[in-house]
Design brief:
The chain is α+β, with helices and mostly antiparallel strands and about 100 residues long. It has one domain. The N and C termini lie far apart (about 30 Å).
């Protein structure tokens, strides 16, 4: 896990815990539809299986990537970087 993540969030993720949803609810990785990746890992970046793009049940997009330090985002937000190829793969998976 990245050292910039709050300790409570890091601990929750390591234990497969729920993440806060955009609408105030919670979701687990199992609640997401994976749009990218080779399927060799478990979403914990094993088996050369990261970064990834997911879609929520409500149609929102969740991006898993390396934390970016491009600028300081507002409280409660984070910036992540993914290769262009991963974004293109997600767009193809969505049929856009």
């Amino acid at each position: 896990m990245d050292p910039l993540l709050p300790a409570a969030l890091t601990s929750s993720l390591r234990q497969g815990g729920a993440l806060p949803g955009a609408q105030g609810g919670t979701m687990t990785r199992g609640d997401l539809t994976r749009l990218t990746g080779n399927g060799n890992g478990n979403g914990q970046c094993g088996g050369d299986d990261c970064p990834n793009v997911y879609r929520t049940g409500s149609g929102a997009i969740v991006v898993q990537g390396n934390l970016s330090r491009a600028f300081d985002p507002p409280e409660g937000e984070a910036l992540v970087e993914i290769p262009e190829a991963v974004l293109r793969e997600a767009v193809r998976a969505l049929g856009w």
